[in-house]
TrEMBL record:
GO terms for molecular function: transmembrane transporter activity. InterPro entries: MFS, MFS_dom, MFS_trans_sf. This is MFS transporter. Keywords: Membrane, Transmembrane, Transmembrane helix. It comes from Nocardioides mangrovicus. It is found in: Cell membrane.
Length: 438
């Protein structure tokens, strides 16, 4: 492992600035989601089902908008792509907190369609600023910052909703998100970095012929990576709901918060370690490892029958799965970037974000049905089963795509998977790497 990598990254001014801006945007973003639920249930006096419908509508709108917003980034640049979003979001959230539920539902859909693609922007900036040799480390540190902001945001959202009326708390959170987008617009960081010439023996994705109605960069390997992104969020959603069901079944409902926090912390640690490795396995390997450790959680009861301390056994097994959460998502970003031409990375990242959103939408009902059928263990078995199947399909897709294996090796950075170079300077590096929206 190379712990100097992160020091080198944080010495780059553009990296420091974009990480700061992204954190200041994401914290109120996560807080706003919690406040929105509390607003619907408490202030508007609707059911949790109504609050869930609101989140579903937003997720669908976001999934639709991600590729479109990413394509705009590719074609017109950051400022022209983001400016309309800032205007629409400012108008929507300035009035939405004081409107009845049906109108709020419509405005949330509009806000989802015009959401600033900040996840895509942040990763594009990091890829360009870090350079090919440090891309995986840059994406890893960003995944850690996502985990940190996700742990902080909901807590602050609850505090805001209890300290003031929820309309004002919602206005505050969403207003800060809009201000963060405006900060990105003012900063206007570069979304591109220098690209090496492709190896003569490996034609890049841009050299493939265009097929009617399908972008030239879309092939079996790209679809395989997107499926891994879907599967990753299916597995994570299954673990999330499975944990709630498991701890309730064990009579430890009060432990749900700290167990999930411990899970998130292990994901952050996994992301940090992954970014320092010289060899980075492709995403289909990591989703298989995530699926394996997820399946191991169902051993909680057999182990606890021998050792006792059921809660402690469960927490340890869940902690082990966390090590592969952030690395799996980071690997899908890196693999996808290695498979698409630089001029199409924004659109590719948009599709990646839609894949993540789709996985979250599929994971909840899959886990729910499995829990109802066989208990909390069902969520972990269903999620791990999907993960294993997609891992196999993605591996086959990469093998079936000429040159894809080499571009995945390139995406890992200098020396990765090939053993070349002991310092990470990578004389034989053949590169690339890309994002998550959600």
């Amino acid at each position: 492992m190379r712990t100097t990598t992160y020091r080198e990254l944080l010495a780059i001014p553009a990296v420091r600035r974009i990480l700061l801006v992204s954190t200041l945007i994401r914290i109120p973003l996560w807080a706003g989601g919690v406040v929105l639920v509390l607003h619907v249930v408490g202030h508007l006096h609707h059911s949790y089902a109504a609050a869930g419908l609101l989140e579903t509508v937003f997720a669908v709108a976001l999934a639709i908008s991600n590729p479109w917003r990413g394509r705009r980034l590719d074609r017109v640049g950051l400022r022209r792509a983001v400016a309309p979003s800032l205007v629409v979001l400012a108008l929507c959230w300035s009035v939405a907190p004081w409107l009845p539920y049906p109108v709020l539902l419509v405005l949330v859909a509009v806000a989802g369609l015009f959401t600033v693609p900040q996840f895509s922007i942040v990763r594009l900036v990091l890829i360009g600023a870090a350079g090919a040799q440090r891309r995986t480390a840059a994406l890893s540190i960003d995944s850690v910052m996502v985990e940190v902001s996700f742990m902080i945001g909901p807590v602050l959202g609850v505090l805001a909703a209890t300290a003031m009326p929820t309309p004002w708390a919602l206005l505050l959170c969403q207003g800060l998100v809009v201000l963060g987008g405006a900060w990105l617009w003012l900063e206007n960081p570069s979304l591109a970095g220098p690209e090496p010439e492709p190896a003569a023996s490996e034609p890049g994705p841009a050299e493939r012929p265009r097929r009617r109605g399908v972008p030239a960069w879309v092939d079996a390997a790209v679809i395989g990576v997107l499926l891994v992104a879907v599967a990753a969020t299916v597995v994570l959603t299954s673990e999330d709901l499975g944990t709630v069901a498991a701890l309730r079944s064990m009579g430890h409902t009060s432990a749900i918060g700290w167990v999930l926090a411990l899970w998130g912390a292990s994901s952050a640690v996994g992301g940090i370690v992954y970014g320092t490795l010289r060899r980075h396995p492709p995403s289909y390997v990591l989703i298989a490892l995530l699926a394996l450790t997820t399946a191991m959680v169902v051993l909680t009861r057999p182990i606890a029958d021998r050792l006792g301390a059921e809660l402690a056994v469960y927490a340890v097994l869940l902690f082990l799965t966390g090590f592969f959460c952030a690395p799996t998502i980071t690997a899908t970003v890196g693999d996808l970037t290695g498979l698409v031409p630089p001029a199409r990375r924004g659109e590719a990242m948009g599709w990646h974000g839609s894949a993540m959103t789709l996985g979250s939408a599929l994971g909840a009902p899959v886990a729910g049905v499995a829990i109802d059928a066989i208990g909390w263990e069902g969520a972990f078995l269903a999620g791990s089963g999907i993960g294993f199947v997609i891992a196999g399909l993605a591996w086959l897709a990469v093998r079936a795509t000429p040159g894809a294996g080499g571009r995945l090796v390139s995406a890992s950075g200098p020396g990765d998977l090939t053993g070349s170079g002991s310092t990470g300077d990578g004389a034989g590096d053949r590169r690339p790497d890309a994002v998550v929206e959600g």
